């Protein structure tokens, strides 16, 4: 770990080398924080609200309407993606997942399955053309939702088998997976 490296450098090259290494680590942490804040500012700066968004229908039946066009990067397979979402069963309006507000966002590796926390295959298709900072209303057909098995989210709710789902998804961040 870093303690071993710093102590080895200190023994071999003196106190200056150990302190230099610690300074190098501190510089890396600070520069990463500045980079992250700059990325967030650029995403927010490039985002714009849509007044009368047109509904787009994908060949697989997923429908979406943009509410906010993001100014950041689009997710690629293997990227770490941070999203906030609210999911409802279309027929009943029952909410089964909600990460917006003071709850924790959903973080996952884009294109890696299985998903958890309210994600389904249909939502991934809608995320493919989004940019970070964007928001979209998505309608997912039963086959690309939770299908014949349904899904139980415990205290948050349940999705019965073969239900059409409606999501409002906010793509917060897209970054290279660690």
TrEMBL record:
- Identify one Pfam family in the record: FKBP_C
Per UniProt, which keywords does this protein have?
A: Isomerase, Membrane, Rotamase, Transmembrane, Transmembrane helix
TM region(s), chain numbering: 12-30
Which InterPro entries would you find in this protein's record? Chloro_FKBP-type_PPIase, PPIase_dom_sf, PPIase_FKBP_dom
Task: Report the domain of life of the source organism.
Answer: Eukaryota
Q: Give the matching PROSITE patterns.
A: FKBP_PPIASE
* Top enzyme category: isomerase
Q: Which reaction does it catalyse?
A: [protein]-peptidylproline (omega=180) = [protein]-peptidylproline (omega=0)
MF terms from GO for this chain are:
peptidyl-prolyl cis-trans isomerase activity
Keyword RNA-binding listed? The answer is no
The UniProt entry, under PANTHER family, shows:
PEPTIDYL-PROLYL CIS-TRANS ISOMERASE FKBP17-2, CHLOROPLASTIC
Protein's name in the database: peptidylprolyl isomerase
Lineage, top ranks: Eukaryota, Viridiplantae, Streptophyta, Embryophyta, Tracheophyta
């Amino acid at each position: 770990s870093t303690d071993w490296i710093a102590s080895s450098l200190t023994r071999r090259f003196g106190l200056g080398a150990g302190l230099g290494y610690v300074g190098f680590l501190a510089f890396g942490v600070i520069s990463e924080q500045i980079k992250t804040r700059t990325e967030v500012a650029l995403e927010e700066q490039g985002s714009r609200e849509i007044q009368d968004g047109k509904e787009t229908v994908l060949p697989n039946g997923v429908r979406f309407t943009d509410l906010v066009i993001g100014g950041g990067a689009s997710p690629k397979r293997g990227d770490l993606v941070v999203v906030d979402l609210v999911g409802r069963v279309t027929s009943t309006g029952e909410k089964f997942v909600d990460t917006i507000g003071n709850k924790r966002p959903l973080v996952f590796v884009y294109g890696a399955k299985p998903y958890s926390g309210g994600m389904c295959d249909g939502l991934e298709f809608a995320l493919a053309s989004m940019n970070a900072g964007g928001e979209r209303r998505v309608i997912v057909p039963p086959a690309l939702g939770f299908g014949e098995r349904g899904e139980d989210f415990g205290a948050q709710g349940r999705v019965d088998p073969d239900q059409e789902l409606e999501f409002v998804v906010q793509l917060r961040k897209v970054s290279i997976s660690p």
